[in-house]
Amino acid sequence: MAGAICAMLCLVLAPSEAIESARYGLSLCAELIVPSLLPFFTASALLIRLGVPQLLGRALAPLARRLWGVSGVGASAFFAGVCGGYPLGAQTVAELYITGQIEKDEAERLLRFCNNSGPSFLVGVIGAGIFSSRAAGLLLYAVHLSAALLTGAFFRRGKPPAATPQPWKEPGFAGALVASVRQAVSAVLSVCGFVVCFCVLSGLLDALGVWNTATSFFSRASGIGTDDMRALLIGLLELSSGIGTLRGLPPSGGRFVLSAFLCGWGGLSVQFQTMAVLAETDLDARGHLVGRVFSAFLSALLAAALLRFFPVLPLF
Fold first, then answer.
1. Is residue 162 pLDDT above 60, yes or no?
2. 311-316 contacts: CB < 8 A, separation 24 or more?
3. What pTM value is reported for the model?
4. How far is CA 219 from CA 261, 297, 299, in A?
């Protein structure tokens, strides 16, 4: 209750900043979130309802069991996540669980490594938009993908799951398509709502001087430059806004590593988006949080190693 009262007071004290931040969040949704997520959400839900993961599961099963201790059907959520971006991986896991294609233990293990950033954001937004190099974005995507694969292997526990339960299917393509579109629109609206809310929160913190104070303090304590520290702090809250603060700054190895870390983490906003898509299930989201923290630090280490052993990169 205290947090809600504080938020309302901030909105009263800085209404213009809140409005501008909301506009920025809505522009992110219109230009990036909806175009990149809605088609993937719809396609993923449709494929699941038509039983396609069962077909893929046969081909993926041997590799998935050895690497991650999950079924081939469960592994299809990983590929959905690395293609569609946050929070499609979590949405796919939830849908597979709801339709009875995976069990609870497997679903919670999948949440640790199947929810990831997609190529459109890493290559298009960061590579082309921040580093002016799609090759840099492809390298970041390779780092991100490798970290996700290794995170899944690290958290492999116990025996692989038993035979996958029979899938639940919609009665025909038309019914599956209608249900998939409705589900996708609902999920994307939820994601957009969180993006706008966190953009407004970040804008209010900026208007109240919180970001400047925190940036100065942590920059002096760590020796990290103020521009990079500001991107880090904002990115911990909301990924797109944090990455956006790097726009116009000269490319550097440190910013490459920082971008890898932030994409591995995903932002606090992604944690709430994931909780939203899991709301209709009894799945525990804490494993997802642990997986994202692990992936963030692993992504940074892999990016730093890449710079060390291959110092001549296209972005520099």
1. no
2. 313/135, 313/136, 313/139, 313/256, 314/133, 314/135, 314/136, 314/139, 315/127, 315/131, 315/132, 315/133, 315/135, 315/136, 315/139, 315/251, 315/256, 316/251, 316/252, 316/253
3. 0.83
4. 17, 19, 22
